[in-house]
Amino acid sequence: MGVVPTEFGSARVSNGEADVIVGVKADLVPPRLAAPSHGEVFVNVSFAAPAAAEKRLVELGESHSACGLRLGSLLAQYCFGELVFPRTLLCVKTKTKSS
């Protein structure tokens, strides 16, 4: 069992005050009508900041959730952008019986 039992895969890395936990989960859902031949990737980031990082977030006027959304968006763009990982690879096509 991984670090996060509710995920399909997970890992934990610690270095000094930094403690990173990553979980991966996949769901098979029907495609959106606007893009029926493309799959989707959603990246969610949540974290607990050490005291120094918490102070800096307050100074910047940013909340944990806003920072997590921004990091998730950046990860999705750079790791799963269309040029890096074409969304057509995520689409599961079923065979239909010919009449």
Give a topology summary.
Layout: E1 9-15, E2 18-24, H1 51-60, H2 64-80
Antiparallel strand pairs: 1-2
Protein name: 3' exoribonuclease family domain 1 protein
Organism: Gregarina niphandrodes
Q: How would you describe the overall organization of this protein?
A:
- With 99 residues, this protein is an alpha+beta fold.
- The chain has a domain at 9-25 and 37-84.
- It has two helices and two strands.
- The chain has helices at 51-60, 64-80, and strands spanning 9-15, 18-24.
- It has a two-stranded antiparallel ribbon with strand order 1-2.
- A hairpin with a 2-residue loop joins β1 and β2 (18-24).
- The longest helix is centred in the C-terminal third of the chain and has 17 residues, at 64-80.
- It is elongated, with a radius of gyration of 18 Å.
- The mean pLDDT is 78.
Could you state the order of secondary-structure elements as H and E? EEHH
Task: Classify the helix fraction into a percent range.
Answer: 25-40%
Would you tell me the overall average pLDDT? 78
Total number of helices: 2
Protein name: 3' exoribonuclease family domain 1 protein
Organism: Gregarina niphandrodes (Septate eugregarine)
InterPro entries: PNPase/RNase_PH_dom_sf, Ribosomal_Su5_D2-typ_SF
